[in-house]
Each structure stands twice: as structure tokens, then as C-alpha cells.
Specification:
- The chain is α+β, with helices and mostly antiparallel strands.
- The chain contains twelve helices and 18 strands.
- The chain has a seven-stranded antiparallel beta sheet. Strands 3, 4, 7, 8, 9 and 10 form a six-stranded mixed beta sheet that branches.
- Strand 12 and strand 13 form a beta hairpin.
- The longest helix is centred in the middle third of the chain and has 17 residues.
- 52% of the residues are buried.
Length: 364
């Protein structure tokens, strides 16, 4: 797809699509949508460009939120933290950024880069580093391509900032997570500075177009008074994991993450069955009766409100809410040995081996 201009009106679809693809994480899309709309209305549309249009020697920088998504619901950002992080990274590197990147396709982190792009006039590249959302900073395709996360700059709502340099992307996660916790549980970040050539090798292409299309599908289905789950599964060869009513939620913000599990009683065609989803910012594992795994990281576990058809994030789970869960295949890079080492079930301490969602749930 050629260069396109994204206006304030487009942010509704992008926020909704990012929330769906974000597998319950990535931060509250409403906050990021407001930030992006405000910046676009003040500065004009954002240019979304294809990776191939960026020069190999250009400086490309992802900007994003790091921390527990639940924090951002209660502690709103000041609004300019991500821009401040970018400016400080530029000063440290001694050169200006030429283009911006979304680090993940999820809620707040699929919209914050639009706000920064509008404020700076920089183009935003059509792609990201995950094709979904993951809870830890090193869990990006850039790590698989040996691109360093540092130097990384944090900025918080109080005006604090810091620069992190580390020996690996995993150590960057460990050190930066501690600072994000001290900054109130969340911070805005500029990291993974890379050349255009590195970006072309590592980025997962077409993500921004994808999430915009998902958001438009959800809006169209709602306007037609249809639930979007059916259309989205048809579009992406998804699997209907289950539909259920939340009967129990355990949630705690610990170690800079929103961790927990939800138990749901099946309804409609799933009546009489019990399901469980475990999350660490994002939905990581879904289990059916007897505890059998029906979907697992790095595949996507996407949630829609069973009544309204809008995406459900982990912080929105509550007793009595009815939710429809769909399993989608992850980008093929996550199914490689490197990908599973970064974000497979074993990394999170689960004792089951990864099996593709389409094999766990054969099509009818």
C-alpha cells in the first residue's frame, strides 16, 4: 500500500483494531486515541509510509509505553512524555530521527506513535515489532535480528527521565522495568534506535494497515447489528475458542505487570463448560475443561465483548462480563526457535509445549 495520510477521524478504527490485535494488552486504547487525535488536530495528518521508502542510513525509532496497563487507566500521562523521550534520545545520539515505528500492535502502543508523529512531522512506518502485544520489552522481532534496545530513554509524568544502556535486550527489560516501576508503574519510552536497513530486516510489515482494517470491520459489523467475531475469524482463519461469562477474576499489579487469571462459564454453544485465561498484561494461555490448553502464546488470544462486539482488555475483565475469545495464528517469525525462546510458553514458566492454535482447534 502506498503512503497514506491518517487523520484524526481515522484514529477510532486504529484504536479499536489495535486493541483487538493487542490480545488484551498494550494499554487502554481510549487514552492513546485522545492523545493522537489532539496532536493530529493541532499539527495535521500523519504520513504512514512503507518500509522500502526509508533510506538505509535513516534513523528509525520506536516510541511506546512501558509498564502495567492498569496504571494508565488511573494515572493519565501528561501528554508530552513520549516526545520528550524521543528528544532526549536524539540529543544522546547526536542526530535527529527520520522516521518512527510502533513497537507493538496493541491499544495505547498502536496510537501513541501517531501522537508523536503528528507533533514532529515525522513519517510513521507501516509495521511493528510484534504483530500483537507482548508484556516484555525484549519480545520483539528486532531482537531476533540482533538489533539493540539501547540506548533507551524513559520519561514520566513528573518530568523525570533517564537513559539506559545494557549488555542485552533482556537486561534492558530488567533494568528499565525497575525504573518504570519507580516512575509510578509506567513510563513513556524511546528505544531500539535502528538504521533503515535494520528496520527493513526486522519489522513485521503492514501492521498499521492491518489494525485500521480490523477496526473498520468491527465498526461496519456493529453498524449492521452483527457481532464482528464471525467476520474477523473468516478474514484471518481464526478459531472460536469459546464464549463465556466471567465468574472470577484474580488480578494484581506486581513487578511492573498486570498479572492474573479469569475463569469463565461457557454460554450458548459452550454452555456447561468452564474455561480459564491467564494473562501478564496480555492473554497468554487459554484452557478448557480439564485444564487442556486450547491456545497459547505466541499465538493471539483476542477478546470481544460478547454483547457489544468491542475489544476487551485484561484490565476491563470483571464479574458478569460476557466475552468471546478467538485464537489467531501469530506471525511465522514467532514460531521459529528464536521466536519461541523469546515468547513461547516455556519463557513464562508454563509446562506445556507450544502447539499452533489451528492444530489445537481443527476447523470444523
Amino acid at each position: 500500500m502506498p503512503e497514506r495520510l491518517i487523520t484524526a477521524a481515522d484514529m477510532e478504527a486504529i484504536a479499536i483494531g489495535g486493541a483487538y490485535l493487542g490480545t488484551g494488552g498494550g494499554g487502554d486504547p481510549y487514552i492513546g486515541k485522545l492523545m493522537a487525535r489532539t496532536a493530529i488536530e493541532a499539527n495535521g495528518p500523519v504520513r504512514v509510509v512503507q518500509p522500502e521508502t526509508i533510506a538505509d542510513d535513516a534513523l528509525c525509532v520506536p516510541v511506546f509505553m512501558m509498564g502495567a496497563p492498569t496504571v494508565m487507566v488511573e494515572k493519565l500521562p501528561r501528554g508530552d512524555e513520549a516526545l520528550e523521550a524521543l528528544r532526549q534520545l536524539e540529543r544522546f545520539l547526536g542526530r535527529k530521527a527520520d522516521a518512527l515505528i510502533c513497537v507493538e500492535a496493541g491499544g495505547l502502543n498502536s496510537t501513541i506513535p501517531f501522537a508523536v508523529a503528528a507533533a514532529t512531522g515525522l513519517p510513521l512506518i507501516d509495521g511493528d515489532g510484534m504483530g500483537r502485544a507482548f508484556p516484555e520489552l525484549q519480545m520483539v522481532s528486532f531482537t531476533m535480528h540482533d538489533i539493540s534496545a539501547t540506548p533507551l530513554v524513559h520519561a514520566d509524568d513528573k518530568g523525570n527521565s533517564s537513559i539506559v544502556n545494557a549488555v542485552s535486550n533482556l537486561w534492558t527489560e530488567r533494568l528499565a522495568r525497575v525504573q518504570a516501576i519507580q516512575m509510578g508503574g509506567a513510563s513513556l519510552v524511546a528505544a531500539y534506535p535502528m538504521t533503515g536497513a535494520q528496520m527493513k530486516a526486522g519489522i513485521l510489515r503492514g501492521t498499521l494497515s492491518l489494525i485500521k482494517g480490523i477496526g473498520e470491520t468491527i465498526a461496519a459489523e456493529r453498524a449492521a447489528k452483527r457481532h464482528a467475531g464471525i467476520a474477523l475469524r473468516a478474514q484471518f482463519d481464526g478459531r472460536h475458542l469459546f464464549t463465556g461469562r466471567v465468574v472470577d477474576v484474580e488480578r494484581a499489579t506486581t513487578g511492573g505487570f498486570a498479572r492474573g487469571r479469569a475463569v469463565l462459564k461457557g454460554i450458548d454453544g459452550f454452555a456447561g463448560r468452564t474455561f480459564e485465561v491467564a494473562f501478564q498484561n496480555e492473554f497468554l494461555v487459554a484452557r478448557g475443561d480439564g485444564g487442556q490448553v486450547i491456545a497459547s502464546t505466541p499465538d493471539l488470544i483476542c477478546a470481544l465483548d460478547a454483547d457489544g462486539g468491542l475489544p476487551v482488555t485484561t484490565e476491563q475483565l470483571r464479574y458478569g462480563l460476557t466475552v468471546e475469545f478467538t485464537g489467531l495464528a501469530c506471525n511465522r517469525q514467532w514460531r521459529t526457535a528464536k521466536g519461541l525462546e523469546l515468547a513461547g510458553p516455556g519463557y513464562f514458566g508454563y509446562d506445556h509445549a507450544y502447539e499452533p492454535v489451528e492444530e489445537l482447534n481443527p476447523a470444523a
